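Reminder to self: tokens first, then the designed residues, so the page reads top to bottom the way the pipeline ran.
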């Protein structure tokens, strides 16, 4: 079982937050940002446990009644939106229960936690509905938000939270974790390189052979480009994959967004850079270059809807990416 201590090695901002929570100096609102699969959700839940723990010693003990109910989502003072996991957006209506609960005291009289996972999916109206509570903390309510990047959060919400970026895992940490979960050494190593610092990504890739093949193709083409000289080889590998074109573009788009979110939020922490050789150009590209690469991917998706051939689309995209992410290197 992963504990809060496992997060102490995840960069200064994360360990400082944990120290503050444990010593009773926690901020009333915290927003955990970072790319998909780096452990934001796990960290958020463990922090929620720390606030609701009634056990002895270092919190959370993960064994007391408070911790157990918080972990199972059954704690009456752990408030989460009613929207289902698959909902794309969280609307004001989904927050009714929380807003009502916030208007009265905590059920058990102690701390209570509002846990808002994927807060970037909250509509501006929903975020505004929470603002009053964020602006006027009542001393016993903690808000824990998670968001991919922090671009989906209103600046008014962000400014009232301590924003803590959860950095990607190091390649070694992913490899270790996969091996501890029964993956053989060779596969663990390969997945740890492909996942770009996202343990969640590594775990879902491990389960899906087609996806793994597709990701490998994307890695060996779009994400390995170092200069225009690499384009013809990459284009040749993509040529036969016309049936997978839309999925390939979706993978590249998602990754480009993640790199962009990382580069915009990047702090000086060296831990923020996963040690994966094939991603190097992307990791060191400027936000502007990544924005240009991302809009080229979106253009490519648009061309797919017209009659342009996949070969032309993929070659063009490869050339644009190779120019952008080598041209704008700092
Ligand atoms: Zn406990």
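Designed residues (330 positions):
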């Amino acid at each position: 079982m992963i504990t809060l201590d496992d997060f102490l090695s995840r960069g200064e901002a994360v360990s400082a937050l944990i120290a503050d929570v444990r010593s009773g100096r926690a901020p009333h609102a915290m927003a955990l940002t970072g790319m998909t699969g780096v452990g934001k959700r796990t960290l958020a839940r463990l922090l929620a446990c720390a606030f609701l723990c009634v056990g002895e010693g270092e919190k959370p003990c993960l064994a007391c009644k408070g911790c157990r109910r918080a972990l199972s989502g059954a704690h009456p003072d752990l408030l989460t939106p009613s929207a289902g996991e698959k909902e794309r957006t969280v609307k004001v209506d989904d927050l009714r229960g929380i807003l009502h609960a916030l208007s009265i005291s905590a059920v058990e009289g102690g701390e209570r936690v509002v846990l808002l996972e994927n807060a970037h999916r909250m509509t501006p109206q929903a975020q505004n509905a929470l603002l009053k509570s964020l602006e006027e903390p009542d001393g016993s309510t903690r808000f824990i938000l998670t968001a991919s990047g922090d671009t989906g959060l209103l600046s008014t919400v962000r400014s009232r939270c301590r924003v803590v970026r959860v950095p990607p895992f190091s390649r070694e940490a992913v490899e270790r974790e996969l091996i501890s979960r029964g993956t053989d050494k060779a596969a663990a190593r390969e997945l740890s390189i492909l996942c770009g610092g996202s343990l969640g990504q590594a775990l879902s890739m491990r389960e899906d052979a087609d996806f793994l093949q597709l990701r490998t193709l994307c890695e060996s083409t779009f994400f390995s480009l170092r200069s225009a000289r690499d384009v013809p080889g990459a284009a040749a590998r993509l040529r036969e994959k016309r049936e997978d074109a839309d999925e390939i573009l979706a993978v590249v788009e998602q990754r480009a967004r993640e790199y962009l979110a990382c580069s915009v939020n990047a702090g000086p922490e060296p831990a923020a850079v996963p040690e994966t050789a094939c991603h190097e150009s992307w990791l060191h590209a400027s936000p502007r270059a990544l924005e240009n690469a991302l809009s080229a991917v979106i253009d490519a998706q648009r061309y797919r809807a017209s009659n342009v051939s996949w070969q032309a689309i993929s070659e063009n995209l490869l050339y644009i990416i190779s120019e952008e992410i080598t041209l704008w290197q700092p």
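DSSP finds 15 helices and five strands in the chain.
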